[in-house]
What we know:
CATH class: Alpha Beta
CATH superfamily: Class I glutamine amidotransferase (GATase) domain
Number of domains: 1
Number of strands: 11
Number of helices: 7
Strand order of the largest sheet: 2-1-3-4-11-10-9-6-7
CATH topology: Rossmann fold
Largest sheet: 9 strands, mixed
Amino acid sequence: MPKIAIAPSSKTHDYEESVRRAGGEPVVLDPATVTPADFVRDFDGLLLAGGGDVQPTIYGEHPHETFSAAEAGRDEYELELDTRALEADMPVLAICRGIQVLNVARGGTLVQDIPSEISHHEQHDLREPRFAIAHDIWMTPGSLLERLMRERIEEGDACAVNSRHHQAPKTIGTGLVVTATAPDGVVEAIEDPSKRFCLGVQWHPENFWRTGEFRALFEGFVKAARR
């Protein structure tokens, strides 16, 4: 059974259940005891979870007035985890804040506040219930995301998702490609086609572990980790 490292966050239950039901063994990392070097040696995949905003100074910008920091030390720890995982071609699934960490780790930047930076935007911050559908996304045909989600895609290349974020990838990092957007143009997925499995999504597929709408994402991730 592949051991999946889950980067620490305030709410890990749904991530753990999603990995477990996909056939993986979830382990929430403790930065005090697991260094990034240990992680690469001891785990088969990395899941970057949701949470607060990445510090904008890391990608060369001043914080927007809406900036809400993540837990102390989390940015540095996750950026190094992600860098080491990608160097080792370890499968990475990055969710919400995770997609932003993935993009910044590759030299990308972020939209710091969708409501003030994007006019006529979709509802991206629908917080309750956590599995409530907020908007559609449009996937790139032939992408890893589209192949995994093919059975759930509706007419054309659309798929309905939940959403609770105010930031998103802006300038895309080196080696990454955009593979899904919302109708307002907000980036909803990025991936690295050169890697075994490197996928970031901006919504929260883990909230659907009971009903399985996005189980294929976790199954594909765990399958890649197993190989």
